[in-house]
Cytochrome P450 E-class, group I (Podospora pseudopauciseta), 177 residues
Amino acid sequence: MTFSDPIWSKQETPVWIKLNKAEYLKACVKEGLRLFFGALRGSARRNLVAPIVYKDWVIPSGTPVGMSAWMLNTDPEVYPDPLAFRPERWLPGNHKPEMDRNFASLGRGSRTCLGIHLVYVFMKHLLVAMFGPGDRPELTLYETEESDVATTVSGLSGLAKRGARGLRVVVEWMSAC
Ligand code: HEM
């Protein structure tokens, strides 16, 4: 299913059950989130009551332990050509379990993003509203280079280079009639 498939029309509000079946739409959301990284490094956790044993390592109680969404989300063995936006990698047939294992944009484990389901719902609705059939905005890139948006600096979330002006677009309203 692609964005132009009639999962939504002016007469019909998009419904979750239909959006959730749109494999290419889901793949775009996953790939967008993967390259957005969420929190580049989640806040560190500490086990205050016992050491953490991982394989041959014993991490003393109280040691802050964290993970890097950058390293997990751009592991070339899991996501070949990792900085390329390729939604197709998430489609059935291409999608491998290790892609879910590495995906860290919404955190992991007991402190996973509380808004995780809301994120998927609103991103799907937003993409269909912007790129689906019917009346929609037409966006044209305006004076934006890749370096204006590429993650370069690690804050809590990823930031573009100092002085970057961000993603700028000219918006025109297109009527389907
Ligand atoms: C695209 C949007 C979003 C992204 C990428 C995102 C990402 C994340 C990440 C990576 C964490 C874990 C941080 C860590 O490990 O320290 C987190 C935690 C959290 N997020 Fe989100 N989030 C998003 C939207 C939302 C929304 C819409 C809500 C609420 C409606 C929300 C509520 C929370 C809360 C409450 C936590 C803390 C959970 C905890 O520590 O127990 N987030 N988010």
